[in-house]
Every structure is written in C-alpha cells, then in structure tokens.
Amino acid sequence: MDACRRLEEVKEKIIKACERSQRKPEDVLLLGASKGVQPAKIREYYQCGLTVLGENRVQEFLRKYEELKDLHIDWHFIGRLQSNKVKYVMDKVSLIHSLDRESLAHEINKRAQVLGKVQEVLIEVNVGNEESKGGLKMEDLLSFYERALTFKNLKVVGLMCVPPYKEEPNQVKPYFEKLRKLKEKLEWEFSVKLKHLSMGMSHDFEVAIQEGATIVRIGTLLFGKRA
C-alpha cells in the first residue's frame, strides 16, 4: 500500500474516532512514530503531508535529522532520554515527551538556557506501574510538577504515557482515563491549562482519542513492520 493511501486511512480513522467522541479532528495531532523507518520512506510520507515525526533513539534521530534537513519536519523526541544526550537534541526538537526525573529536568533547563529558549516537555507517567518502563509514578506527579514549575527554561505542556499492551484496545481504556484524570487534577490544583495528552499508538489510538488524547503516536499502522 502506498504512503499517501496509508496516511489518508489513518487520518480517516482519527476523524471517525473524533466524531464518535464529539471532538474536533483538528484537536488531535497525528505524530508519525518513525523509529526504524528509513529516511527515504519518511521523505515519501512527508510529501503526502505527514510533517510531525517522533524519534526514540538519539543516534538514529541525529542521522535522520541530517539526511532530511531540507524538509520542514516538526521533530518530537518520544523515547527515554538520557541526561548526557540532551545536548544533542535540544536545538532540533519542538517537544520532548519523556520527562520523568528531576536530573533530566535540570539538564533540559540548563541546555535550554544556553540556547535562549524555553523547551516544551511532557511528563511521562508510568500508568501501569511497570518496572520495565520509564515514567514517573502516579503518586509522585503532583510534587514533581510543582518542582518543574520552578525551572525558567522548561515548560510542562501536558502528560504522556505508554500503557501496558493489551490485545483488546478497550482494556487499555482505564490507563488512558487515569492519565486524563491526572492532567485534570494538575489543572485544578495549580490553576493551569495543560495543552497535551500524548497517548495512543497504532492498535489503541481510537480509544485514546475517546479519552482525550491530543497527540497520537502512530508507527506500524503508517509505516508497516520495521526492523
């Protein structure tokens, strides 16, 4: 199946999921999760209209960034980020989805200060309490967010999660609901408006949209199986 057709099919699914939830399709951002996708293929999708892409690994991202420099891609970093790698991505990404510890917040703030920018970030929450995954414990979120507010060159604009994998998408719904309620709690406690909920991937993004996702991270459904 060609890139443009795949992209249109995913967009159509997003539109229908929004209609079912009485939401506006323009309120949901489609991010192409491009880990393992070759630059030539990304270029093809870009020409079909996919302009927001998310990478998981710094080295792989840097190679692609150089090779696709001529395109106006809005790059996001969506994977676990080591503090010593922050300096390599700071001037290249508009949003970091995976802030989950104070040492990382310090490093992002420091590097953003050097660049004279305010770096937008999402706090990743481990909604399934899985040992194998990154993300903040749910009970630590409020105090962590309060500390994040003290950083002048870092701005939390929402939350992100990678819930436990379930064969049946509806089984994931409670995790998306948890993340939405955590966002609402932060908004209430701190009198803020958080723009984003980054949740939902290829097999469960329609359920995520029903629960308020504003960014869906789609990989396999767009690009097929990758190495």
Summarize this structure as a short list of keywords or feature phrases:
227 residues; alpha/beta; TIM Barrel; 9 helices; 41% helix
What is the topological layout?
Elements: H1 3-20, E1 29-33, H2 39-48, E2 52-55, H3 58-67, E3 74-77, H4 86-89, E4 95-99, H5 102-115, E5 119-124, H6 141-148, E6 154-160, H7 173-190, E7 196-198, H8 205-210, E8 215-218, H9 220-223
**What is the makeup of the main sheet?**
8 strands, parallel
Structural class: alpha/beta
CATH architecture: Alpha-Beta Barrel
In CATH, the homologous superfamily goes by the name Alanine racemase
CATH topology: TIM Barrel
Count of DSSP-assigned helices: 9
Residue-averaged pLDDT:
96
Widest sheet: strand ordering:
7-6-5-4-3-2-1-8
The unreliable regions are none
Overview of this protein structure:
The chain is α/β, with parallel strands linked by helices and 227 residues long. The chain has one domain: Alanine racemase (TIM Barrel, Alpha-Beta Barrel), CATH 3.20.20. It has an eight-stranded parallel β-sheet with strand order 7-6-5-4-3-2-1-8. It is globular and about 50 Å long.
